[in-house]
């Protein structure tokens, strides 16, 4: 059915923004786990405030920490983070009741059936 990715932004506990994207059928889960944070980083880089971006994908965080990664999407994220030192990319445990994490998961699943493939 495809793969979905998403992010949502909260300020003072209130959701202020959400984004979701559907990937082509040939994309893997790892790519989806990276696309949501990449889009969130791009959005956060438009401001100057300190922004924390949380993901439940430990493999994504570990890949971004690897300075020798061959993966272009990971290198893109590394470059964005280097250019925007006020953006912090962090790991959060999955399925322990974090509202933002649960909401992002719901959005990613929803876009698989309702969304239009990203170009």
TrEMBL record:
Gene3D superfamilies (UniProt xref): Ribonuclease H-like superfamily/Ribonuclease H
Pfam families the UniProt entry points to: RNase_H
Gene Ontology molecular-function annotations: nucleic acid binding; RNA-DNA hybrid ribonuclease activity
Domain RNase H type-1 per the UniProt entry, residue ranges: 1-113
Cross-referenced PROSITE patterns: RNASE_H_1
Entry superkingdom: Eukaryota
Name of this chain's protein: RNase H type-1 domain-containing protein
Taxonomy of the source species: Eukaryota, Metazoa, Ecdysozoa, Arthropoda, Chelicerata
